[in-house]
Design brief:
The chain has two domains: about 240 residues, Rossmann fold (3-Layer(aba) Sandwich), CATH 3.40.50.300; about 250 residues, no CATH class. Helices cover about 65% and strands about 10% of the residues. The chain is built from 21 helices and eight strands. This is ABC transporter.
Length: about 575
Protein backbone atom coordinates (compact mmCIF):
# COMPACT_ATOMS: atom_id res chain seq x y z
CA UNK A 1 0.00 0.00 0.00
CA UNK A 2 3.06 2.24 -0.02
CA UNK A 3 2.19 3.79 -3.39
CA UNK A 4 -1.32 4.69 -2.30
CA UNK A 5 -0.49 6.19 1.10
CA UNK A 6 1.63 9.15 -0.11
CA UNK A 7 -0.95 9.93 -2.78
CA UNK A 8 -3.63 10.05 -0.09
CA UNK A 9 -1.49 12.55 1.79
CA UNK A 10 -1.21 14.59 -1.42
CA UNK A 11 -4.96 14.41 -1.85
CA UNK A 12 -5.47 15.66 1.70
CA UNK A 13 -3.20 18.65 1.07
CA UNK A 14 -4.98 19.41 -2.19
CA UNK A 15 -8.38 19.33 -0.49
CA UNK A 16 -7.13 22.00 1.90
CA UNK A 17 -6.57 24.27 -1.08
CA UNK A 18 -10.13 24.00 -2.38
CA UNK A 19 -12.42 26.98 -1.93
CA UNK A 20 -16.00 27.52 -3.11
CA UNK A 21 -16.68 31.07 -1.87
CA UNK A 22 -19.10 32.17 -4.57
CA UNK A 23 -22.68 31.03 -4.14
CA UNK A 24 -23.02 29.24 -7.45
CA UNK A 25 -25.31 26.30 -8.30
CA UNK A 26 -22.76 23.63 -7.33
CA UNK A 27 -21.07 25.46 -4.45
CA UNK A 28 -23.07 24.27 -1.43
CA UNK A 29 -22.78 20.59 -2.34
CA UNK A 30 -19.09 20.98 -3.16
CA UNK A 31 -18.35 22.62 0.20
CA UNK A 32 -20.10 19.83 2.06
CA UNK A 33 -18.45 17.11 0.00
CA UNK A 34 -15.00 18.63 0.48
CA UNK A 35 -15.51 18.74 4.24
CA UNK A 36 -16.69 15.12 4.23
CA UNK A 37 -13.65 13.98 2.25
CA UNK A 38 -11.29 15.78 4.61
CA UNK A 39 -12.99 14.18 7.59
CA UNK A 40 -12.80 10.69 6.16
CA UNK A 41 -9.14 11.04 5.29
CA UNK A 42 -8.28 12.40 8.74
CA UNK A 43 -10.65 10.22 10.74
CA UNK A 44 -10.08 6.90 9.04
CA UNK A 45 -8.25 6.46 5.75
CA UNK A 46 -4.86 8.00 6.57
CA UNK A 47 -4.55 6.55 10.10
CA UNK A 48 -5.71 3.13 8.93
CA UNK A 49 -3.14 3.06 6.12
CA UNK A 50 -0.48 3.94 8.67
CA UNK A 51 -1.64 1.30 11.18
CA UNK A 52 -3.25 -1.76 9.62
CA UNK A 53 -2.66 -3.62 12.89
CA UNK A 54 -4.71 -1.18 14.96
CA UNK A 55 -7.93 -2.49 16.55
CA UNK A 56 -11.01 -2.63 14.37
CA UNK A 57 -13.51 0.13 15.03
CA UNK A 58 -17.10 -1.08 14.83
CA UNK A 59 -19.50 1.84 14.73
CA UNK A 60 -22.96 1.05 16.03
CA UNK A 61 -25.30 3.21 13.98
CA UNK A 62 -28.95 3.44 13.15
CA UNK A 63 -32.20 5.32 13.49
CA UNK A 64 -33.71 7.02 16.50
CA UNK A 65 -34.91 4.53 19.09
CA UNK A 66 -33.41 1.51 17.37
CA UNK A 67 -31.56 0.44 20.51
CA UNK A 68 -27.95 1.22 19.62
CA UNK A 69 -26.86 2.08 23.14
CA UNK A 70 -28.71 -0.92 24.54
CA UNK A 71 -26.83 -3.14 22.09
CA UNK A 72 -23.47 -1.68 23.15
CA UNK A 73 -24.37 -2.34 26.79
CA UNK A 74 -25.36 -5.91 25.98
CA UNK A 75 -22.17 -6.61 24.02
CA UNK A 76 -20.02 -5.27 26.87
CA UNK A 77 -22.23 -6.91 29.53
CA UNK A 78 -22.39 -3.63 31.43
CA UNK A 79 -24.56 -0.48 31.29
CA UNK A 80 -21.69 1.53 29.93
CA UNK A 81 -23.65 3.53 27.35
CA UNK A 82 -26.50 5.84 28.26
CA UNK A 83 -29.83 4.38 27.22
CA UNK A 84 -33.22 5.98 27.78
CA UNK A 85 -36.53 6.83 26.17
CA UNK A 86 -35.58 10.52 25.96
CA UNK A 87 -34.52 11.51 22.43
CA UNK A 88 -31.87 12.02 21.42
CA UNK A 89 -30.13 9.81 23.95
CA UNK A 90 -26.63 9.79 22.50
CA UNK A 91 -25.28 13.31 22.04
CA UNK A 92 -21.60 12.67 22.63
CA UNK A 93 -20.31 9.49 20.95
CA UNK A 94 -18.90 6.81 23.23
CA UNK A 95 -15.97 4.61 22.21
CA UNK A 96 -15.51 1.44 24.27
CA UNK A 97 -12.31 -0.60 24.00
CA UNK A 98 -10.36 -3.29 25.84
CA UNK A 99 -7.89 -1.88 28.40
CA UNK A 100 -4.96 -3.26 26.42
CA UNK A 101 -5.96 -1.12 23.42
CA UNK A 102 -5.98 2.18 25.29
CA UNK A 103 -2.92 3.54 23.47
CA UNK A 104 -4.71 3.33 20.14
CA UNK A 105 -7.49 5.71 21.17
CA UNK A 106 -6.13 8.13 23.77
CA UNK A 107 -4.41 10.24 21.12
CA UNK A 108 -5.75 11.79 17.96
CA UNK A 109 -4.84 8.93 15.63
CA UNK A 110 -8.46 8.72 14.53
CA UNK A 111 -11.19 11.35 14.74
CA UNK A 112 -8.61 14.04 15.56
CA UNK A 113 -11.16 16.86 15.80
CA UNK A 114 -12.96 15.24 18.73
CA UNK A 115 -11.47 15.93 22.16
CA UNK A 116 -11.05 12.84 24.33
CA UNK A 117 -13.02 12.59 27.57
CA UNK A 118 -12.63 9.79 30.13
CA UNK A 119 -14.60 9.19 33.28
CA UNK A 120 -17.78 10.86 32.03
CA UNK A 121 -20.32 10.87 29.27
CA UNK A 122 -19.18 14.09 27.63
CA UNK A 123 -21.45 17.00 26.87
CA UNK A 124 -20.40 18.24 23.47
CA UNK A 125 -20.57 17.27 19.81
CA UNK A 126 -16.86 18.04 19.68
CA UNK A 127 -15.96 15.39 22.28
CA UNK A 128 -15.43 11.64 22.18
CA UNK A 129 -16.11 9.81 25.43
CA UNK A 130 -13.75 6.88 26.05
CA UNK A 131 -14.44 3.88 28.25
CA UNK A 132 -12.76 0.54 28.91
CA UNK A 133 -14.45 -2.86 29.05
CA UNK A 134 -12.58 -6.08 29.75
CA UNK A 135 -15.53 -7.96 28.31
CA UNK A 136 -14.57 -6.73 24.85
CA UNK A 137 -11.84 -8.70 23.10
CA UNK A 138 -8.55 -6.93 22.37
CA UNK A 139 -8.41 -5.77 18.77
CA UNK A 140 -12.01 -4.53 18.65
CA UNK A 141 -13.63 -1.28 19.78
CA UNK A 142 -17.30 -0.32 19.72
CA UNK A 143 -18.47 3.23 19.04
CA UNK A 144 -21.98 4.22 20.06
CA UNK A 145 -23.02 6.80 17.47
CA UNK A 146 -25.77 9.45 17.51
CA UNK A 147 -28.94 8.84 15.52
CA UNK A 148 -28.61 9.08 11.75
CA UNK A 149 -32.07 10.67 11.60
CA UNK A 150 -31.81 12.78 14.73
CA UNK A 151 -33.88 15.95 15.01
CA UNK A 152 -30.62 17.66 15.98
CA UNK A 153 -28.61 18.55 12.89
CA UNK A 154 -25.27 18.29 14.71
CA UNK A 155 -26.17 14.71 15.68
CA UNK A 156 -26.93 13.75 12.10
CA UNK A 157 -23.68 15.23 10.82
CA UNK A 158 -21.64 13.58 13.55
CA UNK A 159 -23.31 10.22 12.93
CA UNK A 160 -22.39 10.37 9.25
CA UNK A 161 -18.82 11.37 10.12
CA UNK A 162 -18.45 8.48 12.56
CA UNK A 163 -19.84 5.92 10.15
CA UNK A 164 -17.31 7.12 7.58
CA UNK A 165 -14.56 6.44 10.13
CA UNK A 166 -15.62 2.83 10.76
CA UNK A 167 -13.85 -0.37 9.81
CA UNK A 168 -17.21 -2.08 10.04
CA UNK A 169 -20.78 -1.12 10.71
CA UNK A 170 -23.19 -2.67 13.15
CA UNK A 171 -26.32 -1.20 11.63
CA UNK A 172 -29.26 -1.35 14.02
CA UNK A 173 -32.87 -1.04 12.91
CA UNK A 174 -36.22 -2.27 14.15
CA UNK A 175 -39.13 -4.22 12.80
CA UNK A 176 -41.11 -0.98 12.72
CA UNK A 177 -38.42 1.18 11.07
CA UNK A 178 -36.35 -1.05 8.79
CA UNK A 179 -38.10 0.16 5.61
CA UNK A 180 -37.44 3.87 6.28
CA UNK A 181 -35.64 5.80 3.54
CA UNK A 182 -32.80 7.30 5.58
CA UNK A 183 -31.32 3.98 6.77
CA UNK A 184 -31.43 2.57 3.26
CA UNK A 185 -29.63 5.61 1.87
CA UNK A 186 -26.75 4.84 4.24
CA UNK A 187 -26.88 1.14 3.43
CA UNK A 188 -26.64 2.00 -0.26
CA UNK A 189 -23.53 4.01 0.58
CA UNK A 190 -22.13 1.02 2.46
CA UNK A 191 -22.66 -1.17 -0.58
CA UNK A 192 -21.01 1.37 -2.86
CA UNK A 193 -18.01 1.61 -0.53
CA UNK A 194 -17.78 -2.18 -0.07
CA UNK A 195 -17.70 -1.65 3.68
CA UNK A 196 -17.94 -4.63 6.02
CA UNK A 197 -21.39 -4.43 7.60
CA UNK A 198 -23.70 -6.45 9.80
CA UNK A 199 -27.40 -5.73 10.17
CA UNK A 200 -29.09 -6.02 13.56
CA UNK A 201 -32.88 -6.23 13.36
CA UNK A 202 -33.91 -5.28 16.89
CA UNK A 203 -37.15 -5.40 18.87
CA UNK A 204 -38.93 -7.86 16.61
CA UNK A 205 -42.36 -8.73 18.05
CA UNK A 206 -43.16 -12.39 18.61
CA UNK A 207 -44.62 -14.17 15.63
CA UNK A 208 -43.36 -11.83 12.90
CA UNK A 209 -39.63 -12.55 13.03
CA UNK A 210 -39.53 -14.89 10.03
CA UNK A 211 -41.64 -12.60 7.88
CA UNK A 212 -39.70 -9.45 8.72
CA UNK A 213 -36.35 -11.20 8.40
CA UNK A 214 -37.31 -12.54 4.96
CA UNK A 215 -38.42 -9.12 3.73
CA UNK A 216 -35.30 -7.41 5.06
CA UNK A 217 -33.06 -10.08 3.50
CA UNK A 218 -34.80 -9.53 0.16
CA UNK A 219 -34.18 -5.79 0.37
CA UNK A 220 -30.53 -6.35 1.25
CA UNK A 221 -30.09 -8.63 -1.74
CA UNK A 222 -31.61 -6.00 -4.03
CA UNK A 223 -28.93 -3.59 -2.83
CA UNK A 224 -26.01 -6.01 -3.20
CA UNK A 225 -25.79 -6.53 0.56
CA UNK A 226 -26.87 -10.17 0.73
CA UNK A 227 -23.42 -11.05 2.09
CA UNK A 228 -23.99 -8.92 5.20
CA UNK A 229 -24.70 -10.98 8.35
CA UNK A 230 -28.26 -10.40 9.57
CA UNK A 231 -28.95 -10.78 13.29
CA UNK A 232 -32.41 -10.68 14.85
CA UNK A 233 -33.16 -9.65 18.43
CA UNK A 234 -36.68 -10.25 19.60
CA UNK A 235 -38.77 -7.85 21.62
CA UNK A 236 -38.05 -9.03 25.14
CA UNK A 237 -37.82 -7.93 28.74
CA UNK A 238 -34.48 -6.58 29.88
CA UNK A 239 -32.44 -8.31 32.55
CA UNK A 240 -32.22 -7.10 36.14
CA UNK A 241 -29.22 -5.00 35.14
CA UNK A 242 -31.22 -3.32 32.40
CA UNK A 243 -29.49 -5.27 29.63
CA UNK A 244 -30.72 -7.20 26.62
CA UNK A 245 -30.56 -10.89 27.58
CA UNK A 246 -27.14 -12.31 26.83
CA UNK A 247 -28.61 -15.12 24.75
CA UNK A 248 -30.05 -12.60 22.30
CA UNK A 249 -26.64 -11.14 21.45
CA UNK A 250 -24.57 -14.34 21.54
CA UNK A 251 -24.39 -14.63 17.76
CA UNK A 252 -23.41 -10.99 17.33
CA UNK A 253 -20.73 -11.26 20.01
CA UNK A 254 -19.36 -14.45 18.46
CA UNK A 255 -19.12 -12.82 15.03
CA UNK A 256 -17.29 -9.80 16.42
CA UNK A 257 -14.95 -11.90 18.56
CA UNK A 258 -14.15 -14.08 15.58
CA UNK A 259 -12.93 -11.03 13.70
CA UNK A 260 -11.02 -9.67 16.68
CA UNK A 261 -9.22 -12.92 17.56
CA UNK A 262 -8.19 -13.79 13.99
CA UNK A 263 -5.47 -11.37 12.91
CA UNK A 264 -5.83 -12.34 9.26
CA UNK A 265 -9.60 -11.82 9.40
CA UNK A 266 -9.09 -8.51 11.18
CA UNK A 267 -6.64 -7.37 8.50
CA UNK A 268 -8.98 -8.55 5.75
CA UNK A 269 -11.81 -6.44 7.19
CA UNK A 270 -9.56 -3.40 7.45
CA UNK A 271 -8.26 -3.85 3.90
CA UNK A 272 -11.72 -4.38 2.43
CA UNK A 273 -13.26 -1.33 4.06
CA UNK A 274 -10.16 0.77 3.48
CA UNK A 275 -9.97 -0.14 -0.19
CA UNK A 276 -13.64 0.66 -0.66
CA UNK A 277 -13.19 3.98 1.13
CA UNK A 278 -10.27 4.97 -1.09
CA UNK A 279 -12.12 4.02 -4.26
CA UNK A 280 -15.11 6.05 -3.08
CA UNK A 281 -12.84 8.99 -2.26
CA UNK A 282 -11.54 8.95 -5.81
CA UNK A 283 -15.01 8.96 -7.32
CA UNK A 284 -16.32 11.58 -4.92
CA UNK A 285 -13.27 13.76 -5.49
CA UNK A 286 -14.00 13.78 -9.21
CA UNK A 287 -17.44 15.26 -8.52
CA UNK A 288 -15.70 18.38 -7.19
CA UNK A 289 -14.01 19.16 -10.50
CA UNK A 290 -17.06 20.75 -12.21
CA UNK A 291 -17.70 22.91 -9.15
CA UNK A 292 -14.08 24.06 -9.16
CA UNK A 293 -14.36 24.89 -12.84
CA UNK A 294 -17.54 26.82 -12.11
CA UNK A 295 -15.72 28.90 -9.49
CA UNK A 296 -12.75 29.58 -11.77
CA UNK A 297 -14.99 30.60 -14.64
CA UNK A 298 -16.99 32.92 -12.40
CA UNK A 299 -13.85 34.54 -11.03
CA UNK A 300 -12.54 35.12 -14.55
CA UNK A 301 -15.85 36.78 -15.42
CA UNK A 302 -15.80 38.94 -12.30
CA UNK A 303 -12.21 39.99 -12.92
CA UNK A 304 -13.00 40.74 -16.56
CA UNK A 305 -15.87 42.96 -15.49
CA UNK A 306 -13.44 44.99 -13.41
CA UNK A 307 -10.84 45.13 -16.16
CA UNK A 308 -13.36 46.07 -18.84
CA UNK A 309 -15.04 48.80 -16.79
CA UNK A 310 -11.81 50.50 -15.82
CA UNK A 311 -10.23 50.03 -19.25
CA UNK A 312 -13.25 51.78 -20.75
CA UNK A 313 -12.97 54.59 -18.20
CA UNK A 314 -9.23 54.97 -18.87
CA UNK A 315 -9.83 55.04 -22.62
CA UNK A 316 -12.46 57.77 -22.25
CA UNK A 317 -10.16 59.99 -20.20
CA UNK A 318 -7.23 59.42 -22.55
CA UNK A 319 -9.46 60.16 -25.52
CA UNK A 320 -10.64 63.39 -23.92
CA UNK A 321 -7.04 64.37 -23.23
CA UNK A 322 -5.98 63.56 -26.77
CA UNK A 323 -8.90 64.93 -28.75
CA UNK A 324 -9.13 68.41 -27.29
CA UNK A 325 -12.20 67.88 -25.14
CA UNK A 326 -10.29 69.28 -22.17
CA UNK A 327 -10.34 72.68 -23.91
CA UNK A 328 -14.11 72.87 -23.85
CA UNK A 329 -16.01 75.46 -21.88
CA UNK A 330 -14.27 77.30 -19.09
CA UNK A 331 -10.71 76.41 -20.09
CA UNK A 332 -11.23 77.80 -23.57
CA UNK A 333 -12.92 80.93 -22.22
CA UNK A 334 -10.13 81.60 -19.73
CA UNK A 335 -7.52 81.15 -22.43
CA UNK A 336 -9.34 83.63 -24.66
CA UNK A 337 -9.49 86.13 -21.83
CA UNK A 338 -5.77 85.71 -21.33
CA UNK A 339 -4.52 86.23 -24.89
CA UNK A 340 -7.52 87.27 -26.99
CA UNK A 341 -8.09 85.52 -30.30
CA UNK A 342 -8.96 87.92 -33.04
CA UNK A 343 -5.90 90.12 -33.58
CA UNK A 344 -3.38 87.41 -32.78
CA UNK A 345 -5.05 84.97 -35.14
CA UNK A 346 -5.10 87.56 -37.93
CA UNK A 347 -1.40 88.23 -37.44
CA UNK A 348 -0.62 84.53 -37.54
CA UNK A 349 -2.66 83.99 -40.69
CA UNK A 350 -1.13 87.05 -42.38
CA UNK A 351 2.36 85.84 -41.59
CA UNK A 352 3.35 89.21 -40.13
CA UNK A 353 7.10 89.55 -39.47
CA UNK A 354 8.58 89.49 -36.03
CA UNK A 355 5.55 87.43 -34.98
CA UNK A 356 7.37 86.05 -32.01
CA UNK A 357 7.87 89.46 -30.46
CA UNK A 358 4.27 90.50 -31.10
CA UNK A 359 2.89 87.29 -29.58
CA UNK A 360 5.19 87.58 -26.62
CA UNK A 361 3.94 91.07 -26.02
CA UNK A 362 0.35 89.89 -26.00
CA UNK A 363 1.24 87.11 -23.59
CA UNK A 364 2.93 89.52 -21.26
CA UNK A 365 -0.27 91.50 -21.28
CA UNK A 366 -2.06 88.66 -19.47
CA UNK A 367 -2.15 89.03 -15.71
CA UNK A 368 -0.82 86.49 -13.21
CA UNK A 369 -4.36 86.07 -11.93
CA UNK A 370 -5.55 85.16 -15.42
CA UNK A 371 -2.77 82.58 -15.76
CA UNK A 372 -3.73 81.02 -12.45
CA UNK A 373 -7.37 80.92 -13.53
CA UNK A 374 -6.40 78.96 -16.65
CA UNK A 375 -4.32 76.50 -14.63
CA UNK A 376 -7.17 76.04 -12.17
CA UNK A 377 -9.68 75.57 -14.97
CA UNK A 378 -7.51 72.87 -16.56
CA UNK A 379 -6.90 71.27 -13.17
CA UNK A 380 -10.60 71.26 -12.34
CA UNK A 381 -11.61 69.98 -15.77
CA UNK A 382 -9.21 67.04 -15.78
CA UNK A 383 -9.89 66.17 -12.13
CA UNK A 384 -13.68 66.22 -12.57
CA UNK A 385 -13.44 64.11 -15.70
CA UNK A 386 -11.09 61.65 -14.00
CA UNK A 387 -13.29 61.29 -10.92
CA UNK A 388 -16.46 61.06 -12.99
CA UNK A 389 -15.22 58.32 -15.29
CA UNK A 390 -13.69 56.39 -12.39
CA UNK A 391 -16.91 56.49 -10.40
CA UNK A 392 -18.83 55.42 -13.49
CA UNK A 393 -16.50 52.40 -13.73
CA UNK A 394 -17.06 51.63 -10.04
CA UNK A 395 -20.83 51.76 -10.48
CA UNK A 396 -20.60 49.55 -13.57
CA UNK A 397 -18.67 46.88 -11.66
CA UNK A 398 -20.99 47.05 -8.66
CA UNK A 399 -24.07 46.59 -10.84
CA UNK A 400 -22.50 43.70 -12.73
CA UNK A 401 -21.39 41.94 -9.56
CA UNK A 402 -24.65 42.51 -7.68
CA UNK A 403 -26.90 41.14 -10.41
CA UNK A 404 -24.57 38.37 -11.48
CA UNK A 405 -22.09 35.99 -9.92
CA UNK A 406 -20.77 38.07 -7.07
CA UNK A 407 -23.84 38.91 -5.07
CA UNK A 408 -24.52 41.82 -2.75
CA UNK A 409 -22.06 40.63 -0.09
CA UNK A 410 -19.16 40.66 -2.52
CA UNK A 411 -20.11 44.17 -3.65
CA UNK A 412 -20.42 45.50 -0.11
CA UNK A 413 -17.12 43.97 0.96
CA UNK A 414 -15.34 45.49 -2.04
CA UNK A 415 -17.05 48.86 -1.51
CA UNK A 416 -15.74 48.96 2.04
CA UNK A 417 -12.21 48.96 0.64
CA UNK A 418 -12.81 51.88 -1.74
CA UNK A 419 -11.71 55.43 -0.98
CA UNK A 420 -14.47 57.98 -0.49
CA UNK A 421 -15.62 60.48 -3.12
CA UNK A 422 -13.83 63.31 -1.32
CA UNK A 423 -10.63 61.28 -1.11
CA UNK A 424 -10.92 60.53 -4.81
CA UNK A 425 -11.41 64.21 -5.69
CA UNK A 426 -8.41 65.17 -3.58
CA UNK A 427 -6.27 62.49 -5.21
CA UNK A 428 -7.32 63.62 -8.70
CA UNK A 429 -6.50 67.24 -7.88
CA UNK A 430 -3.08 66.26 -6.56
CA UNK A 431 -2.48 64.16 -9.68
CA UNK A 432 -3.14 67.10 -12.01
CA UNK A 433 -1.04 69.48 -9.93
CA UNK A 434 1.86 67.06 -9.85
CA UNK A 435 1.55 66.57 -13.59
CA UNK A 436 1.54 70.33 -14.11
CA UNK A 437 4.68 70.52 -11.98
CA UNK A 438 6.41 68.09 -14.33
CA UNK A 439 5.70 70.51 -17.18
CA UNK A 440 7.72 73.12 -15.34
CA UNK A 441 10.56 70.62 -15.07
CA UNK A 442 10.30 69.89 -18.81
CA UNK A 443 10.42 73.60 -19.62
CA UNK A 444 13.45 74.14 -17.41
CA UNK A 445 15.19 71.14 -18.94
CA UNK A 446 14.57 72.29 -22.51
CA UNK A 447 15.32 75.94 -21.70
CA UNK A 448 18.80 75.44 -20.36
CA UNK A 449 20.55 77.57 -22.97
CA UNK A 450 20.70 81.28 -22.22
CA UNK A 451 18.47 82.45 -25.07
CA UNK A 452 15.63 80.06 -24.26
CA UNK A 453 15.99 80.73 -20.55
CA UNK A 454 15.72 84.44 -21.17
CA UNK A 455 12.58 84.03 -23.26
CA UNK A 456 11.00 81.79 -20.63
CA UNK A 457 11.88 84.32 -17.98
CA UNK A 458 10.47 87.10 -20.13
CA UNK A 459 7.09 85.40 -20.50
CA UNK A 460 7.03 83.72 -17.11
CA UNK A 461 7.38 79.99 -16.60
CA UNK A 462 3.69 79.58 -15.67
CA UNK A 463 2.64 81.23 -18.92
CA UNK A 464 4.90 78.96 -20.93
CA UNK A 465 3.50 75.98 -19.02
CA UNK A 466 -0.02 77.04 -19.90
CA UNK A 467 0.95 77.35 -23.54
CA UNK A 468 2.39 73.82 -23.43
CA UNK A 469 -0.84 72.46 -21.92
CA UNK A 470 -2.85 74.17 -24.65
CA UNK A 471 -0.66 72.53 -27.29
CA UNK A 472 -1.05 69.12 -25.60
CA UNK A 473 -4.85 69.41 -25.58
CA UNK A 474 -5.09 71.24 -28.94
CA UNK A 475 -6.40 68.44 -31.16
CA UNK A 476 -9.83 69.53 -32.37
CA UNK A 477 -11.37 66.09 -32.75
CA UNK A 478 -13.44 66.55 -29.62
CA UNK A 479 -14.70 70.06 -30.42
CA UNK A 480 -17.52 71.29 -32.60
CA UNK A 481 -18.63 74.45 -34.36
CA UNK A 482 -17.07 77.67 -33.18
CA UNK A 483 -14.97 75.81 -30.61
CA UNK A 484 -12.95 74.28 -33.44
CA UNK A 485 -12.06 77.62 -34.96
CA UNK A 486 -11.26 79.31 -31.66
CA UNK A 487 -9.36 76.42 -30.10
CA UNK A 488 -7.48 75.74 -33.30
CA UNK A 489 -6.50 79.35 -33.69
CA UNK A 490 -5.38 79.90 -30.14
CA UNK A 491 -3.49 76.61 -30.20
CA UNK A 492 -1.50 77.98 -33.11
CA UNK A 493 -0.65 80.97 -30.94
CA UNK A 494 0.61 78.72 -28.16
CA UNK A 495 2.48 76.54 -30.65
CA UNK A 496 4.24 79.53 -32.20
CA UNK A 497 5.28 80.93 -28.85
CA UNK A 498 6.78 77.61 -27.78
CA UNK A 499 8.51 77.08 -31.12
CA UNK A 500 9.95 80.57 -30.87
CA UNK A 501 11.44 79.67 -27.51
CA UNK A 502 12.46 76.02 -27.95
CA UNK A 503 12.17 75.09 -31.63
CA UNK A 504 9.55 72.90 -33.22
CA UNK A 505 11.25 69.54 -32.54
CA UNK A 506 11.64 70.31 -28.86
CA UNK A 507 8.00 71.41 -28.61
CA UNK A 508 6.86 68.16 -30.22
CA UNK A 509 9.06 66.13 -27.88
CA UNK A 510 7.84 68.02 -24.80
CA UNK A 511 4.18 67.63 -25.76
CA UNK A 512 4.52 63.89 -26.42
CA UNK A 513 6.40 63.32 -23.17
CA UNK A 514 3.87 65.27 -21.11
CA UNK A 515 0.93 63.56 -22.78
CA UNK A 516 2.42 60.11 -22.17
CA UNK A 517 3.08 61.00 -18.55
CA UNK A 518 -0.52 62.12 -18.06
CA UNK A 519 -1.80 58.88 -19.59
CA UNK A 520 0.34 56.92 -17.12
CA UNK A 521 -0.90 58.92 -14.16
CA UNK A 522 -4.51 58.42 -15.21
CA UNK A 523 -3.93 54.67 -15.33
CA UNK A 524 -2.34 54.64 -11.89
CA UNK A 525 -5.19 56.71 -10.50
CA UNK A 526 -7.76 54.21 -11.72
CA UNK A 527 -5.75 51.27 -10.44
CA UNK A 528 -6.29 52.62 -6.92
CA UNK A 529 -10.05 52.18 -7.39
CA UNK A 530 -9.89 48.95 -9.39
CA UNK A 531 -7.59 47.22 -6.90
CA UNK A 532 -10.18 46.98 -4.09
CA UNK A 533 -12.33 44.87 -6.41
CA UNK A 534 -9.36 42.73 -7.44
CA UNK A 535 -8.27 42.44 -3.80
CA UNK A 536 -11.75 41.27 -2.87
CA UNK A 537 -11.49 38.50 -5.46
CA UNK A 538 -8.06 37.58 -4.12
CA UNK A 539 -9.37 37.31 -0.56
CA UNK A 540 -11.81 34.65 -1.73
CA UNK A 541 -8.80 32.35 -1.72
CA UNK A 542 -9.58 30.41 -4.89
CA UNK A 543 -6.46 28.58 -6.03
CA UNK A 544 -6.61 28.54 -9.83
CA UNK A 545 -4.32 25.51 -10.02
CA UNK A 546 -6.12 23.44 -7.38
CA UNK A 547 -8.58 21.91 -9.84
CA UNK A 548 -5.87 20.63 -12.16
CA UNK A 549 -3.85 19.38 -9.20
CA UNK A 550 -6.89 17.58 -7.81
CA UNK A 551 -7.58 15.90 -11.14
CA UNK A 552 -3.95 14.79 -11.35
CA UNK A 553 -3.73 13.32 -7.86
CA UNK A 554 -7.08 11.52 -8.30
CA UNK A 555 -5.87 9.96 -11.55
CA UNK A 556 -2.62 8.84 -9.92
CA UNK A 557 -4.52 7.48 -6.93
CA UNK A 558 -6.87 5.47 -9.13
CA UNK A 559 -3.90 4.01 -11.00
CA UNK A 560 -2.14 3.15 -7.74
CA UNK A 561 -5.26 1.42 -6.45
CA UNK A 562 -5.50 -0.69 -9.63
CA UNK A 563 -1.88 -1.69 -9.21
CA UNK A 564 -2.48 -2.46 -5.53
CA UNK A 565 -5.34 -4.78 -6.48
CA UNK A 566 -3.20 -6.48 -9.11
CA UNK A 567 -5.26 -5.28 -12.04
Amino acid sequence: MSEVAPLLADLRQTLDRLRFPLDLPQSADAREETADLRHQLDDYVLPRYESLDAPLLAVVGGSTGSGKSALVNALTSTPIAQSSAIRPTTRTPLLVHHPDDRRWFDGDRILPELARVRGGDGESHTELALAEAETLPPGLALLDSPDIDSIVEENRRLAAQLLAAADLWLFVTTAARYADAIPWALLDEAAARNIVIAIVLNRVPPGVGAEVRSDLARRLEQRSLSHAPLFVIGETDLSEGGLIPDADVTDIRAWLEGLAHDSSARTAVARQTLGGAVDALTLRGETLLPALGEQRSALVTLASQVDDAFAHAHAKVVSAVDDGSVLRGEVLARWQDFVGSGEILRQVEAGVGRLRDRISAWFRGGTQAQAEEIEEAIEDGIARMLVGETETAIATVERAWARGLGGESLVSDAAARLRSHDERVEAATILVREWQATLTDLIREEGQDKRAAARVLSLGINTVGIALMIVIFASTAGLTGGEVMVAGGTAVVAQKVLEAIFGDEAVRRMAQSAQKDLHRRVGEFMVDDAEPFRDELATLGVDAAAGDDLAEVLALLAAARREEQGE
